[in-house]
Amino acid sequence: MKKTEKTKRLIVISLDAVGKADLKRMEALPNFSRFLKRAAVCRDVESVYPSLTYPAHTSIVTGRYPKNHGIVNNLRFQPGREHPDWFWQRRFIDGTTLYDEAEKRGLKTAAFLWPVTGGAKISYNLPEIWANRPWQNQITVSLMNGSPGFQWEVFSRFGSMLDGVKQPALDSFVQASFLYTLKKYRPDVSLVHFTDVDSRRHDFGVSSPEADEALLRHDSRLGEILDLLEEMGWQDDTNLVLLGDHYQKDTRKVSYPNYYLKKLGWLKTAGSRVKSWSVVAMEGGGSCYLYLRRKKDRNRVRKWLEAWEKRPDSPVERIYDGKEAAAMGADPDCDFMLEAADGWYFQNGVEKPWEKVDRQRDPALHLGNHGYHPAKPGYRTFFAGAGPDFVPGAEAGYMSLIDEGPTLARLLGVELPKADGKAVLSLLRESR
């Protein structure tokens, strides 16, 4: 970007679990259609591995693979905890981010439930985090990890809209807070994370009527944003980006690898909690990490995994060793990584080997999930941008999620010097 040019405002809206397969439906909806008709689009965006929300959103703002930015899972590696913490805080990210570099340039930033932003230097920060200890409460945890005064303001105004973390109330709260912030504080860079579709796909399946209704709600939210930009006279100097972080696959069964490791004597439990281990599994939805205390056990563990994979009822589609996992961008510290077979996903439980998904019996189980290898057929997501720095109607044939950070950085005139990805210039005007 030329130094004399004024940076245009940037709004990035992440539609969690909305994918390439949704674009045809979106193009038939009034507000998505209104946006996409003037947008530059990539309909074939490959997520990162594992294709989970926190690694993916960190890759979007860093341009790096999970192995390089450090957010290799949604959950932190805490095998002794029945409910591990998530990677909520910015301090876990290695290297710089899009919002760090924007703040360095003197730009005002805002983030609304954008993952891994707890404690980040963001002007108006409403981080995604929740109380995970008996002595914590949600308001205190949120205020400690975001912008206290700003959060108090939006919670006071819109907190009555919330029903815990249930959808669609959560996204309605995020939308109201975002629109209010645009009007009052006029941030230069806004990062917004909507999870309505992801939540509905987890609960009811990928192509369920409930997921379609959530997509309709996203269309209405987008309409409100587009209307506000026009009302404020910002439509000509604002770059608006819609993107997905991953897609989902339908699931019917859940596997608990730690149950088998317990039976083999490789870990010990106290009730439902892991007490000690020499081999332990760490869930990633459609994938699963295995960690070993003693590297000399690797051959023995591999033989057991290969025998498990060959069973006709196996939940394992493929076994990767640690080097193979790292080569694909996953945790370089893992010893093995399991890819789930079609219809399966993994969780951390130790009390049963597997079960069918029956949400009437256990509503925490999922009929849709993600975390799978991003190259699986029909599993891609999308990227679309409209505004003064995008070429209307331009199409990029393929992008990786790691290309999005450098592309967004170019719009702001900042650098992500250690990015693994490259800016997709075919979507941008030559002056960028």
Write a structural description.
The strands form 5 sheets. Strands 1, 2, 3, 4, 5, 6, 18, 19 and 20 form a 9-stranded mixed sheet that branches. A 4-stranded antiparallel sheet has the order 11-12-14-13. Strands 15-8-16 form a 3-stranded mixed sheet, with no helix packed on it. The mean pLDDT is about 95. Helix content is about 30%, strand content about 20%. By secondary structure, the chain is an alpha/beta fold. The protein is built from 14 helices and 20 strands. It folds into 2 domains: about 10-250 and about 380-425, Alkaline Phosphatase, subunit A; about 255-365, 2-Layer Sandwich (Gyrase A, domain 2). It has helices at about 25, 30-35, 55-60, 65-70, 100-105, 140-145, 150-160, 170-185, 195-205, 210-230, 255-265, 300-310, 320-325, 405-410; strands spanning about 10-15, 40-45, 110, 125, 190-195, 240-245, 250, 255, 265-270, 275, 280-285, 285-290, 315-320, 335-340, 345, 355, 370, 380-385, 395, 400. The protein is globular, with a radius of gyration of 21 Å.
